[in-house]
Amino acid sequence: MPAPGDRPGGRRNPRGDPGKGVHGTFEDRPYWLGSHAYLEERGQETPEVHEQLEALGRDGHSVAVIGNERHVCGFVTARDTLRPEAAPALAGLRALGAGSLVLLTGDNRGTAEAIAREIGLTEIRAD
Known about the structure:
The chain is α+β, with helices and mostly antiparallel strands. Helices cover about 30% and strands about 30% of the residues. The termini are far apart.
C-alpha cells in the first residue's frame, strides 16, 4: 500500500513554493521546477544556462527550469502564437487613425518583445 502523499511513477510529496516554483521527490531524489528568477535565487545558474534562458526569452518562449541540488536538469518551454487575424486587426485600427497601439501582457519582457516584433508594435507593457 502506498504511503500518504505517494504518487504513481515514484513521485512523492509535491509541494509549492508560492511565487517561485514547486518541489517534489522522484525516484527518491529531490527535484524543483521554477522560473529563471528562482534559478538565480537558488544560486545554481551558470553563464551557459543564463545565455540559453535569455535566448529562449528573446525568441518569445516562457521557460520553466527543472533541477536538483546538483545542477539544472533541463527546461520546459512554451510559446504563444498569434491569431492569424491579429496583424490585419491592427492594420485596420491604424487605418482608422488609432494614434498609439500598445501590447499589454503579463508575460515576461522577452516574450512580449518577440510577439510585438511579429505584429509591428513598438510600445510594450510587460511583466
